[in-house]
Design brief:
The strands form three sheets. Strands 8-7-9-6-10-11-12-13-14-15 form a ten-stranded mixed β-sheet, sandwiched between helices. A six-stranded mixed β-sheet has the order 16-17-21-18-19-20, with helices on both faces. With 465 residues, it is α/β, with parallel strands linked by helices. It folds into three domains: 7-98, Rossmann fold (3-Layer(aba) Sandwich), CATH 3.40.50; 108-312, Mur-like, catalytic domain (UDP-N-acetylmuramoyl-L-alanine:D-glutamate ligase), CATH 3.40.1190.10; 321-464, Mur ligase, C-terminal domain (Protein-Tyrosine Phosphatase, Chain A), CATH 3.90.190. It contains 14 helices and 21 strands.
């Protein structure tokens, strides 16, 4: 049976309650019976879902939204010090709790799997949540995206397993003490918080060091950063059980073959000298490898391999991870959360593999000035995999503009790589521009971590008119 409500979380107030990470914690607390309240910048389906669970959700930020009897205020790293609700919390001496500490408190007393890596966290966490639910294990989970089936990013389960996406961006994943940790890959990202790969490695090493005694680290045997992390962890933490997975001959859970079958893949792995084949119901080699990571983690937690492999086939995707938004005038519109060059390349290659001879048109919105400054060239090179691209202005999220850093960095690099790129500064013009480019049989991919996702339905409407 899952534990109840941590004392400090009986009457929590979330600033930015509609965010992917914050809303998940709020949902679990509401399901456990806490009196949840919070605020967000705008109305959303997430706000409505929280209200349906009994939470009070205010739109906009104001000091008066914070109730005098709040037991704590929960914040993420995106909340600025001058937020009026945070200022009011200081005046009332209400404890301020970081999102990661709140999540860690919910995981207490449960067998936990924490999924980390520069890319693929949401998908892998989701695969585990779906598979464990399919096996009637009643997991609790907190994910950075909504599952396509249940349509939610978090739930309180009655079982003794908690699966969580572990965010390295602000080092908050170091707060967890998992029984099993997954590291999918290690690359330089989140440039506002990490100045070098050495800092990234140190952060992931600290995360690995928090695994409970007799716990397990599951880590890629293929990706160079993960391989280097494995070397460092084995040297620094010789008592830690490390299980590697991937296509490398040395992998403990070795991928023998990945066979694309349209929008699915058939995966064969070698376990203990025996072959095990299962289906992954989403396209792309990277998603197949995510499923193998999930398989290895479940096995480490004691779940029979054959049962887990079969259950993994029930995973049908996460919103914004190559999610089909619809079709109009013979054109399919698909949404991708990819915003780092590695992710962009992986999703574009996956769609190439699934699309046969169809043209691939991309609407890309860069995310963060710092990321564009450091990786704009690589983003542009990734766009060369598309037949044509529309590039929007940078989505700032939590950042202030950086002088000289614009989408032109990406467009110039894409053009130099031979890509067909169009700059569109007014997002409202995109549906018209794309409708003028698209022909029957084309695939349109809206790509990025910002509000580019809103354009899919509008593009479909324009194509239909």
């Amino acid at each position: 049976m899952a534990p109840g409500i941590p004392a400090a979380m009986e009457r929590p107030h979330f600033i930015g309650i509609g965010g992917a990470g914050m809303s998940g914690i709020a949902k679990i607390l509401a399901q456990r019976g806490a009196k949840v309240a919070g605020s967000d910048a705008k109305e959303s389906p997430t706000a409505e879902a929280l209200r349906a669970l009994g939470a009070t959700v205010h739109i906009g930020h104001a000091a008066g939204h914070l109730a005098d009897d709040a037991s704590c205020v929960v914040v993420s790293s995106a909340i600025r010090a001058d937020n009026p609700e945070l200022v009011r919390a200081g005046e009332l001496s209400v404890p301020v709790v970081h999102r990661s500490d709140a999540l860690a408190s919910l995981m207490g007393g449960l067998r936990s799997i924490a999924v980390a890596g520069t890319h693929g966290k949401t998908t892998t966490t989701s695969m585990l949540a779906v598979a464990l639910s399919e096996l009637d294990l009643g997991p609790s989970y907190a994910i950075g995206g909504d599952l396509a089936g249940p349509g939610t990013n978090a739930t309180h389960g009655e079982g003794d397993i908690f699966v969580a996406e572990a965010d390295e961006s602000d080092r908050s994943f170091q707060k967890y003490d998992p029984d099993v940790a997954i590291v999918l890959n290690v690359e330089l990202d989140h440039h506002a918080n990490y100045a070098s790969m050495d800092e990234i490695y140190e952060s992931f090493e600290t995360f690995a060091g928090k695994i409970v005694p007799e716990g397990t680290l599951v880590v890629s045997a293929d990706q160079s950063g993960a391989v280097e992390l494995t070397r460092r962890v084995r040297e620094a933490l010789p008592a830690l059980t490390v299980v590697t997975y991937g296509e490398a001959e040395t992998a403990d859970v070795r991928v023998h073959k990945i066979t694309p079958r349209g929008l699915t893949s058939e995966v064969t792995v070698v376990l203990g000298g025996k072959f095990l084949t299962f289906t992954v119901s989403v396209p792309g080699r990277h998603y197949a490898l995510n499923a193998v990571a999930a398989l290895a983690a479940g096995i480490a937690l004691g779940i029979p391999a054959h049962n887990l492999a079969s259950a993994l086939g029930k995973y049908t995707g996460v919103k914004r991870r190559l999610q089909l938004k619809g079709e109009a005038a013979g054109v399919q519109v698909i949404d991708s959360y990819a915003h780092h060059p590695t992710e962009m390349t992986a999703d574009l290659e996956a769609m190439r593999g699934a699309a046969s001879d169809a043209r691939l048109l991309v609407v890309f919105q860069p995310h963060l000035f710092s990321r564009t400054q450091e990786l704009g060239t690589e983003m542009g090179q990734a766009l060369a995999l598309a037949d044509a691209s529309v590039v929007l202005d940078i989505y700032p999220a939590r950042e202030d503009p950086v002088p000289g850093v614009t989408s032109a960095l990406i467009i110039d690099a894409a053009t130099a790589a031979g890509a067909d790129v169009t700059a569109v500064h007014d997002k409202d013009r995109v549906p018209e521009v794309v409708a003028g480019m698209a022909k029957p049989g084309d695939l349109v991919l809206t790509m990025g971590a910002g509000d580019v996702t809103d354009l899919g339905p509008r593009i479909l409407d324009h194509l239909s008119s």
